[in-house]
Design goal:
Elements: H1 3-26, H2 30-38
Helix pairs in contact: 1-2
Length: about 40
């Protein structure tokens, strides 16, 4: 994998991570959101 490919993949995963985090916070489950944050 190229360096650019790795960077793009990391950015993509990061945006998906925040999307999931927002979705869980909107769902009213801060404990699972906190668990997701601390597991990183």
């Amino acid at each position: 994998m190229t360096l650019a490919g790795a960077a793009v993949g990391r950015i993509y995963n990061f945006s998906n991570y925040f999307k999931e985090l927002r979705r869980m916070m909107a769902g009213g489950s801060p404990s699972s959101a906190l668990l997701l944050v601390t597991s990183q």
